[in-house]
Design brief:
single chain; 6 helices
Length: 145
């Protein structure tokens, strides 16, 4: 099995080719075709086709958002467990003050820099993006899409 690529801030974002390069363009094109058809041939059927194609597009994006929300919830749980093991003293008692975005970003930090980044996240109210940029020793996540 090939070794996964190195990850850093510039290369950590991933896309799902089937979703981003097939489903989204087809959904967008379907809505455009349905609207053009409704303008050229007004009537109940063409209006219904516009409505159904928009509903399908919305459903497609809602399903994508639901799966990303589930991933965020799992990452939140994993990182809280990891922080319980790695952090000590006062920082451990402040884990609940971290936002979901901060927890999602902290997953990229190695165990040695995790306490310092956690303290910065709490004290400076760093955003998810700012935290990712602050990671120096990147811990890759190859499972998130």
């Amino acid at each position: 099995m090939p070794e996964p690529q190195q990850q850093d801030y510039a290369s950590h974002a991933r896309t799902d080719p089937f979703f981003h390069r097939f489903l989204v363009p087809i959904s967008t094109l379907t809505i455009i075709v349905a609207v053009v058809n409704a303008v050229r041939h007004p009537g109940f059927n063409s209006a219904w086709l516009v409505l159904v194609s928009i509903a399908a597009g919305v459903a497609l994006f809602k399903m994508r958002m639901y799966s990303l929300k589930v991933q965020d919830r799992l990452i939140r749980l994993e990182e809280r467990l990891r922080l319980q093991q790695v952090l000590s003293g006062p920082l451990r008692s402040q884990i609940d003050q971290l936002t979901v975005g901060q927890l999602v970003a902290l997953r990229f930090a190695c165990d040695t820099e995790l306490p310092a980044l956690t303290a910065r996240a709490l004290n400076e109210k760093l955003s998810k993006d700012e935290l990712k940029k602050a990671v120096t020793s990147w811990r890759p996540d190859h499972f998130r899409v």
